[in-house]
């Protein structure tokens, strides 16, 4: 008589080895949220006039374009791509709004054509990247110069400032008696849409799969080219919307509007926990990153610090957000790990079955 005794080793997954609350709270996104709250509290206590009645209004108005563009930019970077042309699309939509209105067109009609132009810009980026296969960094650097050149060429060095007070007041108005700008309403609608798209849809799962391995994503049924095309189309339209808001808020259409905004958007996205290599990131961390950069800029402005210093700080944050995850990963790999207990059962070098007669 023989009795077979076998034992399979217990398989564990590191991602689920910690309790749920740790996996939700001990993340880069949570760290950014905590850091943002700390900077806000510090500014309220130490920066003169930061607790003034208009600070919240101006802060939200300043970061509104960055908040808008950060939504599609998050998805693009998660796929492992990047869009450096967003600020130039803002400038081009600003110029188109001004030129078309100056030619006698109404603001809604001019804004609609400006949004269409943003869609065309996004389509150009998406086609060259998704279907031609060119690297997004090279493509969007080129289109950054192209779109900015068209904007400056259409308007030159002049500015169009003759916008109806009704639309300017709408861009700078607030919700009722609160200090929350009206622009937060369309932003909230778009934010909910992008959260659902990224975190609660098959399209969003495909975005993460592309960022992890686009070839593997293709073999699992994800239409990689179409997904990237859609993301760049969304980026173009949302950037144009941000350019329209920017123009009406300041009452000025210029070819150099929003110059340098792409740096702030990308810095906020990476600071919010999105990996520059693709495959990971969450929108709530990105929104916290935008607010963090906005609070720092607002506090420094109230302290009479020049814009150049603010740009240096934003640049340092951008570098830190790229380097820090790699440093932490390297440090974690160097730490000694507890050896796991050997599973019960036969040793690997012995037969899996024993016979007793």
From TrEMBL:
Keyword tags: Cell inner membrane, Cell membrane, Membrane, Transmembrane, Transmembrane helix, Transport
Subcellular location as annotated: Cell membrane
UniProt-listed InterPro entries: ABC_transp_permease
Basic and acidic residues bias (residue ranges): 347-357
Assigned GO CC terms: plasma membrane
A GO MF label: transmembrane transporter activity
Transmembrane segments: 30-47, 59-78, 112-131, 137-160, 180-200, 229-248, 260-277, 283-300, 312-331
Family matches, as Pfam families: BPD_transp_2 (PF02653)
Membrane topology: Multi-pass membrane protein
Region Disordered, annotated ranges: 336-357
Domain of life: Bacteria
UniProt name for this protein: Autoinducer 2 import system permease protein LsrD
The species this protein was found in: Nocardioides exalbidus
Lineage start: Bacteria, Bacillati, Actinomycetota, Actinomycetes, Propionibacteriales
């Amino acid at each position: 008589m023989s009795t077979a005794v076998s034992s399979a080793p217990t398989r564990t997954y590191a991602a689920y080895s910690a309790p749920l609350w740790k996996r939700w709270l001990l993340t880069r996104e949570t760290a950014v949220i905590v850091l943002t709250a700390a900077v806000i509290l510090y500014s309220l206590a130490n920066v003169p006039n930061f607790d003034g009645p208009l600070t919240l209004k101006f802060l939200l108005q300043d970061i509104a374009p960055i908040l808008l563009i950060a939504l599609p930019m998050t998805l693009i970077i998660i796929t492992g791509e990047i869009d450096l042309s967003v600020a130039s699309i803002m400038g081009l939509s600003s110029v188109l709004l001004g030129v078309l209105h100056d030619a006698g067109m109404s603001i809604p009609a001019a804004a609609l054509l400006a949004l269409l132009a943003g869609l065309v810009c996004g389509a150009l980026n998406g086609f060259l990247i998704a279907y031609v296969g060119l690297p997004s960094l090279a493509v969007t650097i080129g289109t950054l110069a192209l779109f900015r050149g068209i904007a400056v060429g259409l308007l030159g060095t002049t500015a169009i400032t003759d916008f109806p007070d009704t639309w300017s007041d709408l861009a700078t108005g607030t919700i009722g008696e609160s200090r929350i700008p009206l622009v937060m309403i369309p932003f909230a609608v778009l934010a909910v849409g992008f959260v659902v798209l990224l975190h609660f849809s098959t399209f969003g799962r495909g975005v993460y799969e592309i960022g992890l391995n686009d070839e593997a994503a293709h073999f699992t049924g994800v239409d990689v080219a179409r997904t990237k095309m859609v993301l760049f189309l969304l980026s173009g339209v949302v950037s144009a919307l941000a350019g329209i808001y920017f123009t009406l808020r300041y009452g000025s259409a210029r070819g150099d509007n929003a110059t340098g905004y792409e740096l702030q958007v990308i810095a906020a996205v990476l600071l919010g926990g999105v990996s520059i290599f693709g495959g990971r990131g969450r929108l709530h961390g990105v929104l916290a990153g935008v607010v963090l950069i906005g609070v720092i800029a607002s506090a420094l402005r109230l302290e009479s610090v020049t814009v150049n210093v603010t740009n240096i700080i934003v640049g340092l944050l951008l570098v830190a957000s790229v380097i820090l995850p790699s440093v932490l990963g390297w440090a974690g790999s160097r730490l000694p790990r507890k050896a796991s207990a050997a599973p019960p059962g036969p040793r690997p070098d012995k037969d899996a079955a024993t016979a007793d007669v």
